[in-house]
Amino acid sequence: MNSVIHHTFSPALSSSASSLIGQNKFTEIRMQNVYLPGKGSSRVAVKCVASPSVEQTAYTTKVARNENLAKLQAGYLFPEIARKRAAHMLKYPDAKVIPLGIGDTTERIPEVITTAMAERAKALSTKKGYSGYGAEQGEKQLRAAIASTFYQNLGIEEDDIFVSDGAKSDISRLQVLFGSKVSMAVQDPSYPAYVDSSVILGQTGLYQKDVERFAKIEYMRCTPENDFFPDLSNVARTDIIFFCSPNNPTGSAASREQLTQLVQFAKDNGSIIVYDSAYAMYVSEDKPRSIFEIPGAEEVALEVSSFSKYAGFTGVRLGWTVVPKQLKYSDGFPVANDFNRIVCTAFNGASNIAQAGGLACLSPEGIKAMHEVVGFYKENTKIIMDTFNSLGFNVYGGVNAPYVWVHFPGRSSWEVFGEILEKTHVVTTPGSGFGPAGEGFVRVSAFGNRENVLEACKRFKELYK
């Protein structure tokens, strides 16, 4: 005698059944000719019947996403390059990949600087040497040293200086300071953080794919044809002008005459210049290292800078922003007062250990050591420039900056980036990632140890000979 038992189960509890049932479907599975012993001579046939699975949905809050973040295109440029590099290393696990893309320093921090940081860290273990919260604006001694080292005779005082955890962080704080209603201009090409932070704050419209730019941002085109300085007669009036010199990515440094034009342009339009001088120590020609070398700039400009590319502080994190007392809003209120409020609200001050390192940087021995570090990278830059020049490329930058801007006319920047990575295992940066005017260019960074730079140049010569 045979009898039938229906056994009901959920696919979630049986992986084998789940694979047969399929997601969210009611399916009967028969196990034919499979019997289990019953009482006496009877046998029990087993029929497995699947119950419908309950569709699982993730819990969501009732908070809407910041619509401005949805405007951003793909990932931020440098993490995107890092992902492509990681994928390449998986594809070629035995290849020696040379990173000349992201502008990260490679040479050791001079010992005079690390010694000062170590001593400050050690002192924190003592009753006398311990310190907690410091001034949000930075330690007085360091602010004074920055003023006397970089802004001597330029009218900048120590209380105009706000010490921070790096220029990039200050760029975002400045965007918060200005708010969502201001209009913005950037060099094209330019450091991506200017545009991305502007988008996040809601200062822009949507991304326009046909022209590869965001609406409501004034892109100041900088190309070899205009010596990488925008034709200001064709630039619309904006509230804020981001300007980097020596420039990242093109490596071009603006002349005194050009910056004088920029300051006058800002005055004529009542604009504020955010001047990024993160590479000022690389200037070797007779060109300004600070916007405040230009008469009247203190009324229309502020300046952000950093120890990252001078002393190898990319991981230590230390920079500063100069906001002169003379810089005022349309109602006469000092910009520095509001920036001080932003800093006190959103920041507890730079690490006291990092600030000890910064103070050591500005000692006579530290300044000498920083110039040696900068000199090393400038030698790397010359090697890279000589290589591409010998191959017949049009090469820009390099003289006053640690970046070489190489032109590949008629070609996609990402295509060239991929070609170089695939065929030489060298990571560069596609120019179009810095703005539409960067299309057809590739940026090669001089931040690397000498062995890697020489090997990369050897591979470039083999590829493009």
Please describe what this structure looks like.
The chain is 35% helix and 18% strand. The chain has 3 domains: 2-50, no CATH class; 69-106 and 367-464, Aspartate Aminotransferase, domain 1; 111-365, Aspartate Aminotransferase, domain 2 (3-Layer(aba) Sandwich). The chain has helices at residues 15-21, 77-91, 111-123, 140-150, 167-178, 192-200, 256-269, 308-311, 335-346, 352-361, 364-390, 413-424, 450-464, and strands at residues 2-9, 28-37, 43-50, 98-99, 161-164, 184-188, 207-208, 213-214, 217-221, 240-244, 272-276, 301-306, 319-322, 395-397, 403-407, 426-427, 429-430, 441-445. β14 (395-397) and β15 (403-407) form a beta hairpin. The strands form 5 sheets. The protein has a 7-stranded mixed beta sheet with strand order 5-13-12-11-10-6-9, sandwiched between helices. This is OLC1v1033306C4. Its cofactor is pyridoxal 5'-phosphate.
